Amino acid sequence: MTTLQTSAAPHRRRSRWRRLGTELRKAPVSAWFGMLVIAAYIFIAIFAPWLAHYGEAQVISQPYQPWGGGFPLGTDQLGRDILSRLIYGARNTLGIAMATTLLSFTFGVLLGLVAALNAGWLDQLLSRAVDILMSIPSLIFALLLLAAFGSSVPNLIFILAVLDATRVFRLTRAVAANVVVMDYIEVARLRGESMAWLMRREILPNILPPLIAEFGLRFCFVFLSISALSFLGVGIQPPTADWGSMVRENAALISYSDVTPLLPAGAIALLTVSVNFVIDWFLHRTSGLRDER
User: Fold this and answer.
1) Burial 212-225 (b: 16+ CB within 10 A, else e)
2) C-alpha span between 260 and 75 (Å, rounded)
3) Nearest CA to 221 among 167, 263, 151?
4) Is residue 17 part of a domain?
5) Tens digits of per-residue pLDDT, 119-128?
6) Total domain count for the chain?
């Protein structure tokens, strides 16, 4: 029996990879475009020190040098190479956004599953606390907390993760509530399974598709929030390269018909649109809907 199970495992893995390949071949052009853009951003973020010609805070010329020569995209208000700062900005902005989204999902999913499994005073307590946090505009609340506790990267990640976890909690609780009433959950409880086992083995696998889609959306919102806070001067602090702060630092060039401030803004918009393309395709595939032929 063990030998048969061992030999069947590689076959199942190959079947899963074949199904994944089939699904990818059927993906629309928009989804492929989104995946290629996301892959390019990840590549740039990982290999930023090798792709950039200069350091992210290195002053190497006069301020506002025009495009061309040794500076393909010119220099900023301090004489730093804009192309190099754009490359490092991918690493900093994406890395902080990903860390924030992972932390928010850790908080939100865990508390949402606990609330769904304990329908009672604990569920009411968590739900009312989340309602209070969600009633306050997130950006204004983040500005207030960052002004009070400081604009360090750990504070930025933790504050945004807590505020964003409220949305994750609501979704997780809603979809998990439809699963905990199933008969197999009751059978598992009668067997004496622990809450952790129920969450890991029974509930979470059945609610993954909406959570994966929500992860992409939450990443976009966190990414935009970090850029907005940096633009306002309370997000990622200089000299660290960040796309939001780069827009603010070079905004004066727009008065001279220079499109340099639009480059980091375009990088933000392109990634957001690409992630949404992939999410739309994923939701379409997991919802059971099919195109009419």
Assistant:
1) ebbbbbbbbbbbbb
2) 9
3) 167
4) no
5) 778 888 888 9
6) 1
Any idea what DSSP says for residue 234?
S
Nearest to 82 by CA among 99, 107, 65: 65
pTM of model > 0.70:
yes
Does some domain include residue 4? no
> Backbone dihedral region of 289: left (phi > 0), alpha (psi from -120 to 50 degrees) or beta?
beta
Q: CA-CA distance, 221 to 219, in Å (whole number)? A: 5
Phi/psi at 13 (nearest 5 deg)?
-65, -40
Among residues 240, 228, 208, 237, the alpha carbon closest in space to that of 268 is found at 228
Please state, in angstroms and rounded to a whole number, the distance separating the CA atoms of residues 85 and 263. Answer: 11
Q: What is the pLDDT of residues 173-213, one digit of tens each?
A: 999 988 888 888 888 888 877 888 888 888 888 888 889 88
Which domain CATH number covers 170?
Answer: 1.10.3720.10
- Read off the tokens for 146: 């960052």
Answer whether 219's CB lies under 8 Å from 98's CB. Answer: yes
127 phi-psi bin (left φ>0, alpha ψ -120 to 50, beta other): alpha
Domain extent for 260: 29-286
CB atoms within 10 A of CB 39: 11
